[in-house]
Specification:
heterodimer; A: mainly beta; globular; B: 6-stranded mixed sheet; about 60% strand
Chain lengths: ~120, ~110
Amino acid sequence: KAGVTQTPRYLIKTRGQQVTLSCSPISGHRSVSWYQQTPGQGLQFLFEYFSETQRNKGNFPGRFSGRQFSNSRSEMNVSTLELGDSALYLCASSPEISTGALAKNIQYFGAGTRLSVL
Amino acid sequence: GEDVEQSLFLSVREGDSSVINCTYTDSSSTYLYWYKQEPGAGLQLLTYIFSNMDMKQDQRLTVLLNKKDKHLSLRIADTQTGDSAIYFCAESIRGANNLFFGTGTRLTVIP
């Protein structure tokens, strides 16, 4: 099976622009999560989608949004970019469909999209 | 809260064992995970352990969990230069389907 695919791998944008990142999960996985990785804040959860619905959301401003399509592919969008949005954005897919106590929630990560905001 | 802490750096000699430690605060953790990140790459899942277990072994990797002290460790036997990377512990908690990550430990293996 192919792994999680993220495109593009690198992006350079300027302040005030918007950007869209794409993620194709492992075939058969219906849950897709997005994380932001920065040297200062580490790995922080952005949001999770399951069956085209946002199921969980982290503590990020509304400029960060996402969606999921019927084939489970997901996109995230950042509007009005700020310098502090420069980061590695990681997408992860999971075969887990439950959020119950015994859910393994094993997440498989893509290589990430490195966004630089100038 | 979901604070997960790790020491930042660890250096070991090739062939020695490495032990990477992690502490977490949330008592409703269900599973705990170890991920590896090499330069320019995403996160690679190494192993995971259910919160009611105390040990799991997988080839060169041994995970120890002390639930009372909320302490997790990853032991890598016969450490090789290819093991040089950043290692993250992560937890999932009951009712949430995202992971909470530690700060990461940069392991350097000296030939």
